Automatic annotation (TrEMBL):
Superkingdom of the organism of origin: Bacteria
This protein's name: DeoR/GlpR transcriptional regulator
SMART domains noted in UniProt: DeoRC, HTH_DEOR
GO molecular function: DNA binding; DNA-binding transcription factor activity
InterPro entries, A to Z: Carb_Metab_HTH_regulators (IPR050313), DeoR-like_C (IPR014036), DeoR_HTH (IPR001034), NagB/RpiA_transferase-like (IPR037171), Tscrpt_reg_HTH_DeoR_CS (IPR018356), WH-like_DNA-bd_sf (IPR036388), WH_DNA-bd_sf (IPR036390)
Taxonomic lineage of the native organism: Bacteria, Thermotogati, Deinococcota, Deinococci, Deinococcales
Domain HTH deoR-type: from-to ranges: 3-58
Length: 249
């Protein structure tokens, strides 16, 4: 089993069990305790979990700071890929889309690269991925945030106020009954403006984003037309009861 596969499996286990011993994780994953200890140490350094004596503990469901891009990129790769496949299959050629920052949105950008669409991007990696073939890419100006590569600030906000798009593909740090929230104030402001600028907003988030609340509110779920997530989100009954259209892939 590759390290990425092991660590994804560990994170899945931590979603179910708040605390696990190294021995328990090793037995469930099917590798040695020494291997698990190395994985846990690296994952703790990337902010994916917390180490305890003899094991690991799930981080509390509240976000006060943004996970680094490198940490987010190893989480839920198959789920993010399935979400991206679904969204890309439902994008209409000729449409104008605003691409939020984030690793799930980046997967969508990779699948849409070359298609005859207009892509307004709030993320450097997404802009780079999209800029091929018939895709028209508009990279908004602003401050590029270190370690996340999102674009924020007054310049970005001013440009968004003058734009109109068909669809906003929005990512999220956290989603709960109150709506979508974000650990970074500047990003939350940009997201709100992108929602206002778009005829439709799709929220793309794997199940690990649900049940959390971050520091800054972005919008209520009634501002979102559809949530696209993986089947792990079925356990959040309030999501279905919210009335938002839901696509689980």
């Amino acid at each position: 089993m590759l390290p990425l596969e092991r660590q994804t499996r560990i994170l899945d286990l931590m979603e179910v069990h708040e605390t696990l011993l190294t021995q328990e994780i090793a037995e469930k994953v099917g590798v040695s305790e020494a291997t698990i200890r190395r994985d846990l140490q690296g994952m703790a350094e990337r902010g994916l979990l917390a180490r305890t004596h003899g094991g690991a503990v799930r981080l509390q469901r509240s976000l006060t700071r943004e996970p680094a891009f490198a940490a987010k990129s190893v989480r839920m790769p198959s789920e993010k890929g399935a979400i991206a496949d679904y969204v890309a299959a439902h994008v209409t050629d000729g449409s104008t889309l605003i691409f939020d920052a984030g690793t799930t949105i980046l997967e969508v950008a990779r699948r849409l690269a070359g298609r005859p669409i207009t892509a307004i991007t709030l993320d450097l990696p997404a802009a780079q991925a999209l800029a091929v073939g018939e895709t028209e890419v508009l990279l908004l100006g602003g401050r590029v945030r270190s370690n996340s590569f999102s674009i924020t600030g007054p310049w970005t906000e001013e440009q968004l106020r003058g734009l109109r798009a068909d669809v906003f593909l929005m990512g999220a740090h956290a989603v709960d009954e109150r709506g979508v929230s974000n650990a970074v104030i500047e990003e939350a402001t940009v997201k709100r403006l992108a929602v206002d600028a778009s005829a439709r907003t799709l929220l793309l988030a794997d199940h690990t984003k649900f049940g959390w609340r971050a520091m800054t509110q972005v919008c209520a779920l009634d501002r979102v037309e559809r949530v696209v997530s993986d089947r792990g989100s079925r356990k959040f009954g309030w999501l279905k009861e919210s009335g938002v259209e839901l696509s689980l892939v």
